[in-house]
Structure formats: structure tokens, C-alpha cells
Amino acid sequence: PRAAACTEPCVLACPASRVIIFPPPVVVTFPGPILTTYPQETVVGSTESAELAGALESGVAIGTG
Length: 65
What we know:
GO terms for molecular function: structural constituent of cytoskeleton. This protein is mostly helical. It has one helix and no strands. The chain is rod-shaped, with a radius of gyration of 42 Å.
């Protein structure tokens, strides 16, 4: 019996592959507003600021000058 001999290299054609590479997620932090509350009962400063705070709480009109 005769054996079939192939002297040419065997080439297998494959279809083109498509690879999708996703970049890693990036976390961006935006600074938010700084909320500061001041208690209305606390008055820091001189006696004039205490008088001013008392006048504002009682609704008394304050004139300038």
C-alpha cells in the first residue's frame, strides 16, 4: 500500500478574533459643601454682640450710627 506523504506545511486558517479590553474604573471624589451649624443660644464675643443677639431675638429694630 502506498502512504500519502504531504511535503507542504499544514496551515489552518482561523477567523479574526476580537478582544475588548475595558479600562479599570476610576473613582473621582468631588469635595462637597461644608455645612456648619451655629447654635442660636451661643453668642461668642463682646457684650455688644450679646446685646445685638438679644435685640435680634426680641425683634427690636436696630439703627446704625
